[in-house]
Task: structure prediction
Amino acid sequence: MTTKIIFDTDPGIDDAMALLFIEASPALDLLAITTVYGNADIETTTRNALYLKQRFGLAAPVYQGTDKPLLRPRNPSPTFVHGVNGLGDVELTGLVPALHEAKPAHQAIIDLARQHPGEVVLCAVGPLTNLALALQADPEVASLLKSVVVMGGAFGLAGKPGNVTPVAEANIWNDPEAADQVFTAPWPVVVVSLDVTTQVVMSPTYMDDLEGRAGEAGAFLNAISKPYAAFYGDRDGVVGCCVHDAAAVAYVIDPSLFGLRRGSVRVVTEGIALGQTCLKAEGELFGPSAWDDQPIQAVTVTVDEARLLRLYRETMAG
Ligand code: BDR
Ligand code: CA
Result:
């Protein structure tokens, strides 16, 4: 039995790693790629999704999403992480530009959820604006999806509470209001946060080995991983690439790779902690607070790094 998945993404180097992982996995059936601004502007992230679709023969349609957060101006693109072209400034050669579908991303999410009620996992690895727009346009979508698996946020459990500010992770910080709406909606959400994604690192040796095993996809991923690894090396002293977005995909394939904590999650939407994700664990007792009567979601607190890296390598090697 395969799991139907919609991939909401801002490609993005680690987004590309995650997308090709989905495509290679026999456990997943990719219904659609929905794009969002984030690692670059929406035209660039959509172009990158279309490039990956064409170059690697992906059957799933690409739906372009929104170009800005719900309420705020868009933050500048992190070109120092993902390059000006969003894919590490590796040359994107030789393909005729393809077109995205006419329907906007949030409507595609709604329509696919209605077409396959209770069957679709929505895996979101960029700012959560398309998801919030889907909820606003059709609140029933929350009861139609099987689950929502998000790469984003940080709960400070691994000494890494943020990557764009001391307390905020990029995807959530890019649209805090959307993230708060997504975490407090009545659909089951799993938040795969920096607490685990910074514990999984693909070293240069791992990427070279992947190139040897995974054909053209392996070579492409190795090439785009180099500037990404250089960024992590310079900033955090990490030797290799933190596996952010592919960790969310790994959760969809094999949740046993992760330990979870359950509770309600709120997002700070003003002040110096803008974008911080805050968990009130299930059963904890406090006075009245903004976490009261909110849905109980799950956040990842541990990960089996070796097993996740093996799953990725074996999946990519076919
Ligand atoms: C997240 O932010 C983006 O830059 C990455 O693609 C990932 O989704 C990590 O904080
Ligand atoms: Ca991403």
Q: What stands out?
A: The chain has one domain: 3-317. Residues 3-317 form a domain with the Inosine-uridine Nucleoside N-ribohydrolase; Chain A fold (CATH 3.90.245.10). The pocket of calcium ion (ligand 2) is lined by residues 9-10, 12, 14-15, 38-39, 125-126, 245 (CB under 6 Å). The first strand starts at residue 3 and ends at 9.
